[in-house]
Design brief:
Pfam families: U3_assoc_6 (PF08640), UTP6_C (PF24892)
Radius of gyration: 33 Å
Protein name: UTP6 protein
Structural class: mainly alpha
GO molecular function: snoRNA binding
Oligomer: single chain
Number of helices: 28
Order of helices and strands: HHHHHHHHHHHHHHHHHHHHHHHHHHHH
Main location: nucleus
Family: Belongs to the UTP6 family.
């Protein structure tokens, strides 16, 4: 209460207060359910609900641009079934944020599905389209809403007829029942929105309803398959739809009484028809996107479960063949090389996988990810050329961004090479990587040294690494943890590590949010160590506290003071 009455208000204070009230509501709800007690329910819950709504309204009034705050209020209203309040929230939110189509769709969906008011949903969609006359998503959802409305009316009429009730004043228009309103929405959208993607999305929505055959036919005739050569011949999505349509056409023609072998044969024929369309597509539109559509289709079919080994093998061979054709055309996207290599390795085609990985690095030589893929393949097939390939990769890449390669190299070396070679590699990586990336290598080097060289060796390495900045907080924490694991854990050494860490990270002059909150923790850990360690000096806590208060700023001071007090009283 004090915090939200300040002159300088903070959003976090309102959020924390609201969360506290919501937690209280949840607790009351659980306790009532446990003991079956409903006395004074309206007085208690209602007053808390009103307080939460009031807090939300104050926060939203102050920070109107924060959409997440609005959405939190909406979610709260839905959770506690505050329909009247939610209607007001939507109304105010849309008045302030009319430029966000997703909010209009959310409001209309609530009206349609929760309030069961298709008229209100329709009005919202029409208002939204005044602000966004060319938004495909709005038209798609409006189209879906009209079809849902038609389906709802069809079910109502059928229920009345089955009950042999007199419809009386209920008048069901045949045009609405057949989706005429959705047709009008589609025709209006078709004049404003160009591109095949929208029309295919609308078509997929129409297919969800069993009374839209005529509507589907119109979409296809006006903007679909039958006008491809003139309208969208260069769009990969069109060819993708045409090819996949062959699967559906085949399924419509299948008969009921078929053997397993006949089903496999028919599926093979259907997939071959799809591939024939894709082959025509990659000839007509030889682009990366077109090949990507073709390969994605092949991978989908390849991953599909089947009991027929013959069909499974055909799908695998077809997929590998398509990958190879795209590669030979130099139109295989970088992201798909990884899937190709994975497929080759799973099929035990190690030699081919090595060739493909090498070709990929020649084509995408500046890409760290591609070099990483090639190295992983060589490591998996236990090739003798791993070291040579690492050297080649480092030579091609500049120092920036090579951290994944060095990490992979030292991890491989740990399990393969001698300790001396691995240590030399760690030291080389510290020189070769950028200062920011060398921080990670220092942590790994420290960890590896402790595992393989013991405590005395890791102390020497730690001292030498401390000569060159930068460091990470985890680097010092690792050393503190190592010291604690020793049988004769010396507070003198722990104090040294804490002091080193505080020299680097004791103040709050940082933009890194995670690091910012770590400052407070390291001061508290230091105090805790002095209090709990057998060789600790509790009298040092006062000076540590004084130094922390000088170094920390803002909210961290308040948090530190409360935690420090709990520590001193033995409650933390």
């Amino acid at each position: 209460e004090y915090k939200i009455q300040r002159r300088a208000l903070r959003k976090e204070d309102f959020i924390n207060y609201i969360q506290y009230e919501i937690n209280l509501l949840e607790l009351i709800k659980k306790r009532r359910a446990r003991i079956g007690y409903s006395f004074k329910k309206d007085e208690i819950e209602h007053s808390i609900l009103q307080r939460v709504h009031s807090l939300f309204n104050r926060a939203i009034g102050k920070w109107k641009d924060d959409v997440q705050l609005w959405l939190s209020h909406v979610a709260f209203c839905k959770q506690w079934n505050a329909k009247h309040q939610l209607s007001k929230v939507f109304s105010t939110m849309l008045a302030i944020h009319p430029n966000k189509p997703a909010l209009w769709i959310m409001a209309a969906k609530w009206e349609m599905e929760t309030q069961l008011s298709s008229e209100s949903a329709r009005r919202l969609f029409l208002r939204a389209l005044r602000f966004h006359p060319e938004c495909p998503k709005l038209y798609q959802e409006y189209f879906r809403m009209e079809l849902m409305h038609a389906e709802k009316q069809r079910k109502e009429k059928k229920a009345f007829e089955q009950a042999k009730m007199d419809l009386g004043e209920f008048n069901y228009s045949e045009e609405i029942l057949n989706g005429e309103l959705a047709r009008i929405v589609y025709r209006d959208a078709a004049q404003k929105i160009k591109g095949v993607e929208f029309h295919l999305a609308v078509l997929s929505i129409a297919k969800l309803f069993d009374f839209t055959q005529d509507l589907q036919k119109e979409i296809l005739e006006r903007h679909g398959v039958f006008s491809l050569q003139t309208k969208y011949a260069d769009d990969p999505l069109t060819w993708d739809y045409m090819a996949r349509r062959e699967l559906e056409l085949g399924s419509l023609q299948s008969t009921e009484h078929t053997t397993k072998q006949m089903k496999v044969s028919e599926m093979t024929q259907r997939e071959e028809r799809c591939c024939a369309v894709f082959e025509e597509a990659v000839s007509a539109v030889p682009t990366e996107d077109m090949w990507k559509c073709y390969i994605t289709f092949c991978l989908e079919r390849c991953n599909r479960k089947t009991n027929s080994e013959e069909l499974k093998q055909k799908r695998l061979d077809r997929t590998l063949s398509v990958f190879n054709k795209a590669h030979e055309s130099s139109l295989l996207p970088e992201v798909l090389y990884k899937q190709w290599l994975q497929l080759l390795l799973e099929s035990n085609l190690f030699e081919k996988a090595t060739e493909v990985a090498e070709a990929a690095t020649k084509r995408f030589s500046p890409s760290v990810e591609v070099w990483q893929m090639r190295l992983q393949v060589l490591i998996q097939v236990k090739s003798d050329d791993v070291t040579e390939c690492f050297e080649e990769a480092i030579k091609h890449m500049k120092s920036k961004g090579t951290l994944p390669l060095w990490t992979l190299w030292v991890e491989w070396s740990e399990g393969t090479n001698s300790k001396e070679d691995t240590e030399a590699l760690y030291q080389r990586s510290l020189r070769a990587t950028t200062p920011a990336e060398s921080v990670t290598m220092k942590e790994k080097y420290l960890d590896w040294t402790y595992r393989n060289g013991g405590y005395k060796k890791v102390k020497r390495v730690f001292t030498s690494l401390c000569e060159n900045r930068p460091f990470s907080l985890d680097f010092f924490r690792k050393m503190i943890q190592i010291e604690k694991e020793q049988e004769s854990c010396k507070m003198l050494h722990l104090r040294e590590y804490y002091e080193r860490a505080l020299r680097e990270f004791g103040s709050t002059d940082s933009d890194n949010q995670n690091l910012y909150f770590s400052f407070k923790i390291i001061w508290l850990d230091y105090v805790k160590e002095e209090l709990s360690h057998p060789q600790g000096k509790p009298e040092n806590c006062g000076s540590i506290h004084w130094r922390a208060m000088k170094m920390l700023q803002g909210d961290l001071v308040e948090d530190f003071v409360s935690k420090y007090t709990l520590l001193q009283t033995g409650h933390l």
